[in-house]
């Protein structure tokens, strides 16, 4: 992205032919229009002189042919320009999608990122038009030159008068472009809120809650407020722009009248013919239009400069953690151990750490279950183990090597994770499972045989699932979750992290799954997070977290003996504690 030439090359990929044709037509049109003005002048002079009406009629026929040619060429040029715009838009989308490749998720999981991403996407959308601008500028410059010469031939000083009178417009366009950009950045938060609320109103997944909680009006009120605020900002901006434009529009009218006046004086003093008068007036109109479009292109170029700065700033701020460190080492060995040493982690923008002084050794063959109250940091710890968050040096080690010195993508190759917010992909079942690697039928079938209950019963592997595709089959919450687990298993990495990944499974399937998984344990390090304490005895170690610290760790039986936090949690889960502490549950009569 920082390399401007390669960026432009990528954006313009596949458009060169269209550009060349469009530019050529632009130049041809300029030549045609200029010739057409000459014909108009000659025709008028012939008519005024009434010397040869036949010549005038021939000139009219010539004019007709010229106009038809110009109209057809303009249509064809428009068609080619649309092609350029579509291709450039596609290329830009591809570049943006490729560029947004964070090294970790620490900074991308913040509202600030979402806001800035919004602005960058807006800027990228407007870039598509800008790439057309580059070519249009060339054509505009040529056409301005042509018309200036044409006018110069009749009234030498007029082109300079026109240039002078159009100068304020240039200033205005540059200013408008800058203000529009600043405005988009400033109002992005409100615009995003409006879109978020709108999504809530139109998303079918929210309808059941809207019905049961009668929340539609509540959401609508919030949406209308955000809408009104957004509209107020837009209108205020448009009002200021219109007021500013009024001044410049008056100057433009003065310019027109001034030019007319000078020409009329020329005709009265017989320094120009009536034909020249008509031709110069027409040329002035085209020249002014070209100057105005050049002014607006100048504004757009300014916008381009601002956009580029914003995009590079965005990529540097959020997506380049690794590049700030030393040259990362490749990590291609077989993973044997993961070690956390006095790990401390605070989310960006938070003053207090979520994970505090956590030390833990995980070896291949270990099966560890993390338990603790809501919000104690289990998911955060799981993501830290997977290398998904940025941490200070000397805290997380893979095979004894500091993960900060390792190439992150190599780390991710060793890890499979099912988080609580796994994605319901609108793909076929086979694709949902195999997307992490090249599809391999044998590997897919092996997983399906080993864990048949993870695959929706009676469905073909090529069936498309999800609400987002027409004709797709809908799955239940548990079925989606099972597919997410199958995807993680298919990846077959040495570390498997399951963050409440079985929460939607029925108890029998859950137990069967963990039982089957344990038989694969020798080749994997398994880390699970669960609130269902009945599966804990299956794991080699339970780790209890409280406010970001490990307060107890050991096998289930050892921890029960401690009579501490773990034993209280287990009792509460099995209802033993509830009965003894709160007495019997009253019967409903
Ligand atoms: N992206 C984030 N940005 C800022 N704070 C976060 C983020 N994600 C989680 N937190 C905060 O970190 C703390 C721990 O969250 P975490 O999700 O790790 O808890 P948990 O133990 O997994 O909880 P639960 O059992 O409810 O899933 C919470 O206070 C939460 O608000």
Automatic annotation (TrEMBL):
Descriptive protein name: ATP-binding cassette domain-containing protein
Source species: Cohnella suwonensis
Report if keyword DNA repair is assigned: no
Q: Which Gene3D superfamilies match?
A: ABC transporter type 1, transmembrane domain, P-loop containing nucleotide triphosphate hydrolases
Keywords in alphabetical order, please. ATP-binding, Membrane, Nucleotide-binding, Transmembrane, Transmembrane helix
Q: Do you know which PANTHER family this protein is assigned to?
A: ATP-BINDING CASSETTE SUB-FAMILY B (PTHR24221), HAEMOLYSIN SECRETION ATP-BINDING PROTEIN (PTHR24221:SF646)
Regarding the membrane, this protein is recorded as: Multi-pass membrane protein
The record ties this protein, via SMART domains, to:
AAA
- Primary location class: membrane
What InterPro entries is this protein classified in? AAA+_ATPase (IPR003593), ABC1_TM_sf (IPR036640), ABC_transporter-like_ATP-bd (IPR003439), ABC_transporter-like_CS (IPR017871), P-loop_NTPase (IPR027417), Type_1_exporter (IPR039421)
Compartment list: Cell membrane
Q: Which residues cross the membrane?
A: 20-37, 57-76, 128-149, 155-171, 246-268, 274-299
Under the heading Pfam families, the entry gives:
ABC_tran
The chain positions of domain ABC transporter read 338-572
The record's GO molecular-function terms, alphabetically, read: ATP binding
